[in-house]
Amino acid sequence: MADPASNGWPAGKVFDAATQSFTYDDLVFMPGLPNFESSEVDLSGHVTKNLKLRCPVLGSPSDTVTGPKMAIELALHGAMGIIHANQSVESQVNMVQAVKRFVSGFILEPFVMSPTQTLADLDKLKETRETKGVSSVPITHDGRLGGRLVGIVTARDTDLCEDRSECLCTVMTENIVTAKEPLAFAEAIDILKREKVGKLLILDAQDRLVSMVTRSDLKKVRDYPEMSRDLSGKLLVGAAVPAKEGQPDEARANALAEAGANLLYLFGDGVDAQLELIQRLKVKYPSVELLAGPAASVREAKRLVQAGSDGVVAGTGCDVGGDVEAPKAVALGRGEATMVYEVAFYVTRNFALPVCAAGVRSSAQALVAMGLGASSVILREPLAGATEAPTGGTAAPPLHHPHSLVSATGVRYGSSRAWERQVTVPRSVAMQVPHRSQVPRWGRAWGVGAGENTKECPRVKAFLMYFFSGLQKGFRQIGFRNLQELHVALEKEALRMECRLPYGLQLREACIQAKRNSEFPLVAPAWSSLR
């Protein structure tokens, strides 16, 4: 029982007594009594039951936010991106594979040659698209993976050989550093450091080649110690799969799971087709984590969890991206704070599953969402103007559309009159975002946009440093070292909060918006760009 003399109110009284829903900006937490530094705060949290991130942030599955570059950058800094589904299956699979190839980890299918092959055969192998960047090739007795290892040919062995008809057995290095499986990726990296070699070949108990680890990964681990990796050492990546009524894209889900996606986000309207797809995928790919949503109510979340989802997204369709739809002239949805609290309260207590909060646009809103029970958040607008975004720095007006106008399939309105020309109506305009020539103060503070080239877009690295720093300071100010302590305080009513007056909030937001407009003047999109 919380101290009755404490200021503020526990979450239960705030939401149970309210007749209206609350947004993230309607709530403020009462300060705590911290006795630690903000750098000691641990932000790690679960996205699904078995998937934990050091920085619990997901890139929105929107085609203006998360492509391969964004997914790679997020994973390198401890977060994870969800590749959008507004494209063909082949294109989405290629994006997932590009992310998985960026850090090789355990190369389970290295290119192998036999001792009797020649340098000319090696040159021909390196010219193919699949072997781009390959500089070293293991040599087995039969030229196949799983054969007995006899040597390795590196660029150092072949660069100075003029006779390309020479056999590989005459130039290969036979004194090789190897390791035996089972072996963890961290242990393989330690062996590379200790032996000071560029390649580490992994053998089984019968000395047969099974995999390989390269020094390039050692450099990436050194430069990005917080990167999100799976057990094989590759970057974590998710992919979105539409699960609408009458058109559940099971073929897309199968292809993405086979391509190595660690997480599949199945978005739909909670229809039976979505639930059936979850059940089939859980049986077919038990090692792939399934995140389902969006769920705005407890009833929707219950159906998704009982179908087999490993995590639930608390949000609405416009908060989490998805496929392109026509604008809907209906009043649907719920206040984000109320939605996250109600869904998280039910899911975490009854099923012990994490909840991911959508619609978050700042570190302050992320703190509120996590304080109400969310374990991770989805970011859309804050990432849309970054250099790594698919449309980063290319849009002229500083406005973010949930879907790019080029690929969107909007609704066309037309008339037989010549002066009433057809136009494509975008789904919505969410908010202004940093773009070319408009680097905000946090970007300049972290070295983005400083110097001569001031027309660069902010990079994801700079934004994430700013975002995580603000989140850590918020945790410290309310007196919690990690997400687990925060959720325990929420359950035991030790976390106190209050509601802001609408007038004060509106006045504050008006002042902030006026300041933004003075720094970044809005330019209305020309009608010609919407045709």
Number of strands: 20
Question: What is the SS-derived class?
Answer: alpha/beta
Order of adjacent strands in the largest pleated sheet? 4-5-11-13-14-15-16-17
- Given as residue ranges, the uncertain stretches (5+ residues, pLDDT < 50) are 322-329, 395-430, 434-455, 520-531
Q: Taking Cα atoms only, what radius of gyration do you get, to the nearest Å?
A: 26 Å
Q: Sheet with the most strands?
A: 8 strands, parallel, barrel
Q: What share of residues are in beta strands?
A: 15-25%
Kindly report the oligomeric state of this protein.
Answer: single chain
How far apart the termini lie comes to 61 Å
The number of helices is: 17
Mean pLDDT: 79
Indicate the overall shape.
Answer: elongated
**Helical percent range?**
25-40%
InterPro entries: Aldolase_TIM, CBS_dom, CBS_dom_sf, IMP_DH, IMP_DH_GMPRt
Family: Belongs to the IMPDH/GMPR family.
Domain CBS: 172-231
Pfam families: CBS, IMPDH
Task: Describe this structure as you would to a colleague.
The chain is α/β, with parallel strands linked by helices. Helix content is 33%, strand content 15%. It is built from 17 helices and 20 strands. It has helices spanning 11-16, 68-76, 89-102, 119-126, 155-158, 185-195, 215-223, 250-259, 272-284, 298-307, 336-351, 363-371, 381-384, 441-445, 460-478, 483-491, 502-519, and strands spanning 27-29, 45-46, 52-53, 57-59, 80-83, 137-140, 149-153, 178-180, 199-203, 209-214, 238-244, 247-248, 263-267, 289-295, 311-314, 355-360, 376-379, 411-413, 423-425, 497-499. The protein has an 8-stranded parallel barrel, surrounded by 7 helices. Strands 8-9-10 form a 3-stranded mixed sheet. A two-stranded antiparallel ribbon has the order 1-20. A hairpin with a 5-residue loop joins strand 9 and strand 10. The longest helix is centred in the last third of the chain and has 19 residues, at 460-478. The chain starts with 10 loop residues before the first helix and ends in a 12-residue tail after the last helix. The model is unreliable at 322-329, 395-430, 434-455 and 520-531 (pLDDT under 50).
